[in-house]
UniProtKB/TrEMBL annotation, chain B:
The keyword Secreted does not apply. The chain crosses the membrane at residues 7-28, 48-77. NCBIfam families: CPA3_mnhG_phaG. The keyword Transmembrane applies. InterPro entries: PhaG_MnhG_YufB (IPR005133). One of its GO terms (molecular function) is sodium:proton antiporter activity. PANTHER family: ANTIPORTER SUBUNIT MNHG2-RELATED (PTHR34703:SF1). This is Sodium:proton antiporter. Keywords: Membrane, Transmembrane, Transmembrane helix.
UniProtKB/TrEMBL annotation, chain C:
Belongs to the CPA3 antiporters (TC 2.A.63) subunit F family. This is Multiple resistance and pH regulation protein F. The keyword tRNA processing does not apply. The lineage of its organism: Bacteria, Pseudomonadati, Pseudomonadota, Gammaproteobacteria, Thiotrichales. It is found in: Cell membrane. PANTHER family: NA(+)/H(+) ANTIPORTER SUBUNIT F1 (PTHR34702), NA(+)_H(+) ANTIPORTER SUBUNIT F (PTHR34702:SF1). Keywords: Cell membrane, Membrane, Transmembrane, Transmembrane helix, Transport. GO terms for molecular function: sodium:proton antiporter activity. GO terms for cellular component: plasma membrane. The chain crosses the membrane at residues 31-53, 60-79. The keyword Kinase does not apply.
Length: 312, 116, 95
């Protein structure tokens, strides 16, 4: 099904249909991850792939136009290159150990250490979170900063247009009371659910990235059913920008504090008297930082795209 | 007792699957957009109810049941609203329903809009 | 066993919806199919969670239910916007 979807995505010219099929594609991918028992990855794919990236792509379409141009050159040469690369990659996988076999290098090296020591050292039930936020703290910090850098890029390239009054010639839309009432009722639950995902990340699937995306999705739903102006009133871009920077600061600050207390950077064990408690605090703070940054970055990018699209 | 619960949830799950498949077939067999919406959205609601209540019977009184019911409520809440918005948008932007008699556009259209 | 049967049935539904999304003569047909696909994915994950004996998958099902709704609304809004622009291009006064 994945292959079929990908083929159709390539064949279609209307970029709208393509965006929708992308969302189906990521739903399929997420189902695949579910079958492989990678719950956290499926969670992220659901929230990011199907949710936010669809909206951001739509926002891009509003700026650029929604018909794909015919390619000017013949597709034969790229096809050959792609087929060759794919063949080489497949050939490379032949050398890898069989899928799921216990003597893969991954399972010899770090995985047993994580699995054996994580309950003792970090002491939270969801191992993925402990690996993500504690053992691989540097990586996650890098990811957060990448997200933040993307925001800086978008803002410096496009910027958020100040909302001007609509020109009077614009056609009046029909009232959408049902949609608005439904959204109004739903949004609190979405935000609450985002917080649940944020703080439940220690115990079940979830964490900062997913929670941030869900939170942003709630605000975006508000912007869609009412108007961008209302959403900007609710969450003003100025404040959200500060929150985005604050999230990164929180992450880095946790690292600095642990350095000041005598550990290494991002070594949370020194944050409290008991190392396990220290790990808990550290992970909580770091995840909070990630969540804040991701949520506000997604909102700001959405604002930037849509305000740009509406201004034209 | 366990047997009874098992049989019940079998029945519920099968009924739900049947409804879902019939809805999906309706998505193909029906001639125009509006009737397809009808097929998809109506079966969707009951299909979700049947399948989830089948699962609830298996789960018993736990947190899982609560979560299942929350999922069901979300589905019940969002799916009709989405269908409504979809039909409204399609109607507003001039997608005409397929009618047996094309002379009576006005009358039929009013019927459709009052139904939707 | 019963979860397996249900999961297979839902997969059949998903495949059918997928084909409708590929064919879809109008944009709205595609959105309808995507919506149906999404709700069926929610059910699929719930059933799969039971099948695999890990009902904590349900959190994900919830995310899907929400995200799917927001996605459909977003697509609709943009379709509306573009339909408006097109009709404004054709002649200025059609609403």
């Amino acid at each position: 099904m994945l292959g079929l979807t990908a083929m159709t995505i390539i064949r279609l010219r209307s970029l709208f249909a393509v965006v929708m099929l992308f969302s189906i594609y990521s739903l399929l991918t997420a189902s695949l991850f579910m079958v492989l028992d990678a719950v956290d990855v499926a969670f992220t794919e659901a929230a990011v792939g199907a949710g936010i990236s669809t909206m951001l792509m739509l926002g891009t379409l509003m700026i650029t136009g929604y018909r794909e141009k015919r390619p000017a050159h013949s597709p034969i040469l790229p096809l050959i290159v792609v087929v060759l690369t794919g063949a080489v990659l497949v050939w490379g996988t032949l050398d890898m150990p069989h899928f799921g076999s216990p003597d893969q290098p991954v399972h010899q090296h770090v995985a047993p250490r994580y699995i054996d020591d994580s309950p003792k050292e970090v002491g939270i039930p969801n191992m993925v979170t402990s690996v993500l936020a504690s053992y691989r703290g540097y990586d996650t910090m890098g990811e957060t900063i990448v997200v933040f850098a993307a925001l800086i890029g978008v803002l410096s390239l496009i910027g958020i247009k100040k909302y001007t009054n609509k020109e009077p010639g614009r056609t009046e839309k029909p009232p959408e009371s049902i949609l608005q009432v439904a959204a109004k009722l739903l949004i609190p639950f979405i935000l609450l659910f985002a917080l649940y995902v944020q703080f439940h990340g220690d115990f079940g699937p979830g964490g900062g990235f997913q929670a941030g995306v869900i939170f942003a999705a709630g605000i975006i739903l508000y912007a869609l059913t009412f108007s961008l102006k209302d959403a900007m009133h609710l969450a003003p871009p100025k404040v959200v920008k500060v929150i985005a920077a604050f999230g990164v600061l929180l992450y880095g600050g946790t690292g600095i504090v642990s350095m000041l207390k005598g550990g290494t950077f991002l070594n949370y064990s020194v944050l409290a008297h008991d190392p396990i408690h220290g790990q808990h605090y550290g992970i909580l703070l770091v995840e909070l930082g990630v969540g804040l940054t991701v949520a506000s970055v997604m909102m700001l990018i959405f604002y930037a795209f849509v305000s740009r699209g509406e201004a034209d | 007792m366990e047997q009874v619960v098992d049989i019940l949830s079998w029945l519920l799950l099968l009924a739900g699957s049947f409804l879902g498949i019939s809805g999906a077939i309706g998505l193909f067999r029906f001639p125009d957009f509006y009737s397809r919406v009808h097929a998809a959205s109506v079966t969707d609601t009951l299909c979700a109810l049947l399948i989830i209540s089948g699962l609830v019977l298996q789960a018993g009184f736990t947190l899982i049941t609560v979560k299942l019911i929350i999922v069901l409520l979300f589905l019940w809440y969002t799916s009709p609203v989405a269908s409504h918005a979809l039909v409204k948008a399609a109607h507003y932007h001039g997608l005409k329903p397929l009618l047996s008699d094309s002379n009576e556009d006005e009358v039929k259209e009013e019927e459709v809009s009052s139904k939707s | 066993m019963m979860f397996a049967v249900t999961a297979v049935a839902i997969m059949v539904i998903m495949a059918l919806a997928l084909i409708r999304a590929f064919m879809g003569p109008s944009v709205y047909d595609r959105i309808l199919a995507v919506n149906m696909f999404g709700t069926k994915t929610v059910l699929f994950i719930a059933v799969l969670g039971f099948f695999a004996g890990r009902p904590d998958f349900l959190d994900i099902a919830m995310v899907y239910a929400l995200i799917n709704f927001i996605g459909v609304i977003a697509v609709l809004k943009f379709v509306e916007r573009i339909a408006e622009e097109e009709s404004a291009d054709v002649d200025g006064k059609e609403n």
